UniProtKB/TrEMBL annotation:
SUPFAM superfamilies attached to this UniProt entry: lambda repressor-like DNA-binding domains, Periplasmic binding protein-like I
Superkingdom of origin organism: Bacteria
Residue span(s) of domain HTH lacI-type: 2-56
One Pfam family per UniProt: Peripla_BP_3
Organism: Granulicella mallensis (strain ATCC BAA-1857 / DSM 23137 / MP5ACTX8)
Protein name: Transcriptional regulator, LacI family
Length: 337
């Protein structure tokens, strides 16, 4: 197995210079970096992470805490983060809190024990355990929603405005009774989407109607059955995320409530096959890949920054969303985008 000395010999530099390059502990000229990287590639050298950790260095690993691995949106974010980290020579350790406090606390302890260099987290529970990262000097970036009470960087999307635009579109179709369907109302992202829905309804003089316990197909089916038997059912639905959307689509099909003939639907977040559905789904599209990539960029800037140059206050990036009009809202003749 090649060693630091072997890399130094092939690159024509000193072993200390190779160590500095591998550990990122001090300045190495661009010319020497190029020679060292070429030698590493030629020899297939891999730094001994265990030895680095024993010497007090951070592992070349970042942590990523998601609330739910089953949500395709977070899957896209994670893929973008992993790709960015890999391009910078880091691995990504991905865990899911599953909205469980004990699981989350155990994951935080594990990541700290692994001496990760930084953390990207989608907050879903109390932030108390995350303060341990700050005490250890490990940078944190909040993804999709902010970390309350912690001065961490955050990368989010325009949830409120996107939701308001979607509901205003349904109102423009003449819908008076539009129901907001989903779950996780305590989260920052979902609460802002609910606020956007409520703003649009109240501005039009309409009464908001919330159904915020739809977390499973069974929940959605129960609601759809109630509507199918009622002559006073809503004429449109606004779903808060793609998990709720998927459940509602399946439930509405089961009770034969055709979209948009019997009930229109607009969703927050785009599904992978949304444009191939019949009818194609009108959505608020989030830049999932861009969100993950921007979160990773901010984190690696923090990791690379000298300690005395780190900002005490977190930065906030708000990425725009895109309203994609297809056919489930009632529009016709719209090519699926």
């Amino acid at each position: 197995m090649p060693t630091v000395a072997d890399v130094a010999r092939v690159a024509g530099v000193g072993a200390i210079t190779v160590s500095r390059f591998v550990n990122g502990t001090s300045y190495v000229s661009a010319a020497k970096k190029k020679k060292i990287q070429a030698a590493i590639d030629k020899l297939g050298y891999r730094p001994n992470q265990a030895a680095r950790i024993l010497k007090g260095h951070r592992a070349k690993v970042i942590g990523l805490i998601l609330p739910d691995l089953a949500d395709p949106f977070f899957g896209k974010c994670a893929s973008a983060i992993e790709s960015y980290a890999s391009a910078h020579g880091y691995m990504t350790l991905i865990v899911a809190s599953k909205h469980d406090r004990n699981i989350s606390n155990n994951e935080v302890s594990m990541l700290i024990g692994q001496r990760v260099a930084g953390l990207i987290v989608v907050p879903s529970l109390s932030n108390d355990s995350l303060t341990e990262f700050l005490h250890e000097g490990i940078p944190i970036v909040a993804l999709d929603r902010p970390l309350s009470g912690i001065a961490a960087d955050e990368v989010v999307v325009e949830n409120l405005g996107g939701a308001q635009t979607a509901v205003e579109h349904l109102i423009g179709h003449g819908h008076k009774r539009i129901v907001c369907v989903g779950y996780d109302k305590e989260s920052h992202a979902v609460s802002h989407r609910i606020l956007g829905y409520t703003n649009a309804m109240q501005s039009a003089g309409l009464k908001p109607e919330l159904r915020l316990s739809i977390q499973s197909y069974e929940d959605a089916l129960k609601l759809a059955k109630q509507w199918s038997k009622s002559p006073d059912r809503p004429s449109a639905i606004f779903t808060l995320n793609n998990v709720a959307t998927r459940h509602m689509l399946e439930a509405l099909r089961e009770v034969n409530l055709q979209i948009p003939e019997k009930i229109a639907l607009v969703a927050f977040d785009d599904l992978e096959l949304a444009k191939l559905l019949s009818p194609a789904l009108t959505v608020v599209r989030q830049p999932a890949v861009g969100l993950g990539a921007q979160a990773a960029r901010v984190l690696f800037e923090r990791i690379a920054a000298p300690k005395n140059q780190e900002s005490e206050f977190g930065i906030k990036l708000v990425l725009p969303v895109e309203f994609i009009i297809r056919n489930s809202c009632g529009c016709t003749g719209i090519p699926a985008a």
